[in-house]
């Protein structure tokens, strides 16, 4: 997390296609894995990945380096579009059927790995996983249901059979720990 | 009830994973417009939420997705600097397009040539059909003439050359049974282009000659068949004059080429 590489988005915002290609090469695998996690469908994931990068190209000027990392900017766009697709195709019921298995196996970051990672990204991912594994399961599961499945607080509470307040607290605590861990790395 | 900064930060934490309620989102948005500290907290939670995605093992998308993305971006039209790979890709596309157009053009030329060939063939077939029809008519005419010549009731009349063509002659075969006459001319001078030969019948019951046909001489010869002869009345004589091309209702001169009496 502390090994951020050169920021490319300012060049992309100027219409530099070379920088955009580098940006794609740097983040496409991460975003594709995220979209596969959200959509569980390669065709959907590829389509949304394409849409996401086109949106990055057109919205690069809105990126402010002071407001967050380049990775977070791209991930936010891809995640938002992935959740939109998930909802629009009304496949949530299928996802819910799978959710129990995912929760029980705690498998959110155990996805099939393909392609070559560079050393920097591998190191970063190792650090991220360390931060995530430090979260109590209950907090991480609640966060994953919101982040990957697009469930609301009440839907998560219903799914896990917990009071709404409890779910909200778990999620807030989990996010605070992730934020603190992120600060510690920077 | 007043919401504290700490509470807004908690909402920002939920909002970062998409779990804030619509009411919480609205309240947070309004607050962020005036609170730099909470905006910073919101940004940090945004980065923190991205860790959930960055912990997943990456999966390389198919190569064609990259191509589609780059095509879409180039088509967007805001590209300032193109990469060499994109350039070569476009060059390849341009070459492929040129080749395609060349092949297409070649195909179109081939089709056009084939169509022209078919049209020529059709025209030749029509010409042959016309010639066949003419030959058929000539065959029927010859058959009729042969029948007339061999018929027992056939009468023969000889026409001799007159001052206009002393060496010319003609022989008329009258077939009363079929009300037909066949006339064979020989040694006729070729008629000028603006003139035609015209055969006249002088009848006993008519004061004026009647046209029996208009013809041209070729190499001194000509043949004319007269149908529907008035056999019940006497034919006193036959004569040929040169008349304006296409013939006239009555002879314009008495400069006979050939003439003969029955």
In brief:
By secondary structure, chain A is mainly alpha-helical. Chain A has nine helices and no strands.
Would you give an account of this structure?
The complex is a heterodimer of chains A (about 190) and B (about 260). Chain A is mainly α. Chain A has two domains: about 1-90, RNA polymerase sigma factor, region 2, helix turn helix motif (Rna Polymerase Sigma Factor, Chain: A, Orthogonal Bundle); about 90-110 and about 120-185, Winged helix-like DNA-binding domain superfamily/Winged helix DNA-binding domain (Arc Repressor Mutant, subunit A), CATH 1.10.10.10. Chain A has nine helices and no strands. Chain A has helices spanning about 10-15, 15-40, 40-60, 70-90, 90-105, 120-135, 135-145, 155-160, 165-185. The N and C termini of chain A lie close together (about 5 Å). Among the domains of chain B are: about 5-55, no CATH class; about 155-260, Immunoglobulin-like, CATH 2.60.40. In chain B, helix 1 (about 5-15) crosses helix 2 (about 20-30) and helix 1 (about 5-15) runs parallel beside helix 3 (about 35-55). Chain B starts with a helix and ends with a strand. Chain B has an eight-stranded antiparallel β-sheet. The mean pLDDT of chain B is about 85. The radius of gyration of chain B is 52 Å and the shape is rod-shaped. Chain B contains five helices and eight strands; from the N terminus they run H-H-H-H-H-E-E-E-E-E-E-E-E. Chain B is α+β, with helices and mostly antiparallel strands and about 260 residues long. Chains A and B meet through helix 2, helix 3, helix 4, helix 6 and helix 7 of A and helix 1, helix 3 and helix 4 of B.
């Amino acid at each position: 997390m502390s090994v951020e590489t050169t920021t490319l988005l300012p060049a992309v915002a100027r219409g530099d296609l070379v920088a955009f290609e580098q940006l794609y090469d740097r983040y496409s695998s991460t975003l594709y894995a995220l979209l596969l996690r959200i959509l569980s469908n390669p065709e959907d994931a590829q389509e949304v990945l394409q849409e996401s990068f086109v949106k990055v190209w057109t919205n690069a000027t809105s990126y402010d380096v002071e407001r967050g990392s380049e990775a977070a900017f791209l991930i936010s766009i891809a995640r938002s579009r992935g959740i939109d697709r998930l909802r629009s195709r009304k496949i949530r019921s299928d996802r819910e059927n799978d959710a129990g298995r995912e929760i029980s196996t705690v498998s959110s970051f155990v996805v099939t790995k393909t392609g070559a990672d560079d050393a920097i990204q591998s190191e970063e991912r190792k650090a991220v996983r360390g931060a995530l594994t430090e979260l109590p399961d209950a907090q991480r599961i609640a966060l994953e249901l919101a982040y990957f499945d697009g469930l609301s607080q009440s839907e998560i509470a219903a799914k896990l059979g917990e009071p709404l307040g409890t779910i909200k607290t778990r999620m807030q605590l989990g996010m605070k720990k992730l934020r603190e861990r992120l600060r510690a790395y920077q | 009830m007043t919401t504290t900064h700490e509470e807004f930060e908690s909402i920002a934490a939920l909002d970062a994973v998409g779990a804030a309620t619509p009411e919480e989102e609205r309240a947070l948005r309004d607050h962020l417009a005036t609170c730099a500290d909470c905006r910073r907290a919101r940004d940090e939670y945004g980065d923190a939420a991205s860790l959930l995605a960055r912990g997943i093992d990456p999966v390389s998308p198919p190569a064609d997705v990259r191509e589609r993305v780059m095509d879409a971006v180039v088509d967007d039209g805001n590209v300032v600097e193109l990469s060499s790979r994109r350039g070569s890709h476009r060059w390849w596309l341009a070459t492929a397009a040129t080749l395609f157009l060349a092949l297409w053009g070649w195909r179109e030329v081939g089709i056009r040539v084939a169509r022209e060939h078919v049209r020529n063939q059709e025209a030749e077939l029509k010409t042959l059909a016309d010639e066949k029809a003419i030959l058929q008519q000539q065959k029927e005419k010859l058959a009729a003439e042969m029948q007339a010549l061999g018929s027992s009731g056939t009468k023969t009349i000889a026409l001799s050359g007159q001052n206009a063509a002393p060496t010319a002659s003609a022989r008329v075969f009258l077939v009363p049974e079929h009300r037909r006459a066949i006339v064979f001319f020989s040694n006729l001078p070729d008629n000028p282009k603006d003139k035609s030969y015209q055969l006249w019948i002088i009848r006993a019951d008519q004061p004026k000659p009647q046209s029996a046909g208009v013809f041209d001489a070729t190499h001194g010869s000509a043949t004319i068949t007269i149908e529907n002869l008035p056999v019940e009345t006497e034919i006193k004589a036959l004569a040929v004059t040169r008349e304006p091309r296409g013939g006239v209702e009555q002879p314009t001169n008495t400069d006979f080429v050939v003439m003969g009496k029955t």
